[in-house]
Amino acid sequence: MARPKPAIAAVIPAAGVGKRMQAAIPKQYLTLHGKTILEHSVGRILGHHQVAALWLALDKVDPYFSSSSLNSSPLSDSAVKRVDGGSERAHSVLNALQQIDATAYPWVLVHDAARPLIRDADITLLIDSCLQAGYGGILASPVRDTMKRGKATTAAVQVAGTVDREQLWHALTPQFFPTRQLCQALADALAAGVNVTDEASAMEWAGQQVLLVEGQADNIKITRPADLALAAYFLDQQRLEQQHLEQTGR
């Protein structure tokens, strides 16, 4: 008899301003095919059949959310809960985790606000892989390019050496962990002054195993101005794929 699947919560930290986008507003509120990047990202995560509730960590004085569709029907019901974000991503995620009942939601997905192209199939693959392994993990993609380590000089950034790309991966999101373990790992790491760049780094520091699950390369994070056009292209391609599947009945 198959084990019942656990209820899953999700967290999206969206309190940052995205300075590298060089935009007048935070990047999560830039428009992509008629919707904000944040609306795309929330819709993809909350649209997954195993995600029961989502906590959205926003800046305390966010002036943009109130005019977003996320603040109105149908997403403004009990499935989406707003919490205050912190000074860094890790603080925002921890603030959200501290509001989640880990008994009701023993596992949690954490997803970047600026990754609007996450595929439903990749979310399923991550969840199923981690539940089968019995510990958390992340979506990731293998490094394909030659990797260089740089060094800054007074005139320019120069190559300091070549890094072996064997077993190097680009960390993506969502990242999926037991709720209590992740909450404790983040709290302890921040208290110790550890530089926590993602949820996996907190779990690694806590000595926990972290599974690598290969995801699709079009799950890009919108960080710089050129990324917005690339995201629009990938979104078009995903829609064409979906239309093809619907037409062929596959």
UniProtKB/TrEMBL annotation:
Site (Transition state stabilizer) location in chain: R20, K27
The protein's Enzyme Commission number: 2.7.7.60
EC category: transferase
GO molecular function, one term: 2-C-methyl-D-erythritol 4-phosphate cytidylyltransferase activity
Function: Catalyzes the formation of 4-diphosphocytidyl-2-C-methyl-D-erythritol from CTP and 2-C-methyl-D-erythritol 4-phosphate (MEP).
Family named by the database record: Belongs to the IspD/TarI cytidylyltransferase family. IspD subfamily.
Protein name: 2-C-methyl-D-erythritol 4-phosphate cytidylyltransferase
Provenance organism: Arsukibacterium indicum
